[in-house]
Amino acid sequence: PGHSILIQVSEYASGSIRDAQAIIDACLDAVNAPRDLVQFVVGYGATGSALVTSGVDKVIFVGSPAVGAMVAKTASDNLTPVVLELGGKDPFIVCEDADIPSLVQTACRGVWQNMGQNCAGPERFFVYEGVYDMFCDGVTKVVKNMKIGPSLGDPTVDCGAICMGPKQMLHYQKLVDDAVIRGAKVLAGGFIPAGDNPLTKGSFYPPTILANVPEDALIAQEEIFGPIMAIFKVRGNSDAEAVRMANNCDFALSSCAFSGNADRAKAITSQRVAGMTSVNDLEGTTYMS
Fold this sequence. Notes:
Layout: E1 5-8, H1 17-30, E2 38-41, H2 45-52, E3 59-62, H3 65-76, E4 82-85, E5 90-94, H4 100-112, E6 122-128, H5 132-144, H6 165-181, E7 185-188, E8 208-211, E9 228-234, H7 239-247, E10 254-258, H8 262-269, E11 276-279, H9 284-287
Parallel strand pairs: 1-2, 3-4, 5-6, 5-10, 6-9, 8-9, 10-11
Antiparallel strand pairs: 7-8
Helix pairs in contact: 4-5
């Protein structure tokens, strides 16, 4: 009745199996398919290695480049086909003719949805100098009003916890500190809560905005996977310069461009080296389709 799927979830998200399994079971029931077509397994590296070497017909892996290289190497022993999705630093291009007030919320949702813990989500914001200050002011005002804390049972919370804990927050801080040393300016956040702050009781990193980020900063090349918006200024309101800056990165999962002229935005995205692109909207318009 169809191809069977075995899903190993991240060890950081094992609790999600209950909800995911219930949804999938309902879908299988709706089409009168056996429930065991889709099954879940939990574990660490040894479990993943066992799956890759078990004789499955195909492996699809989402994770880090380091682990992805191990998956590909192991799968090659059995000539098992592999699809790897190893991170993203999706560019969000804002032309000088874009409607800034209307896209500020879209930009913020893209970064702080799941506190940035998304494989396909904007991390690098290339804003033309003609609207640079307006954009920075707009997103900063939104962030200053966002509520941080445990989200279970509190619908007023905008920003929840970091699933990978203190180790991941140290990664964020390393990227922020490096960018600041190289000339970036912190407009919001940028620190690990300490002292009497109640957020120190959990893994909470405040929503962070970095402006004037230089292209040689680590945060311009390394995946953040967290609640940090890195803003780069596009000099001369140049489409060619925006494309060059956006393509100046090894990661290319998704991208988007915003302009008052949809044809212009489309022309910009057509020059992007990325797996998927969207015009005047976030990347969800592509992979959700």
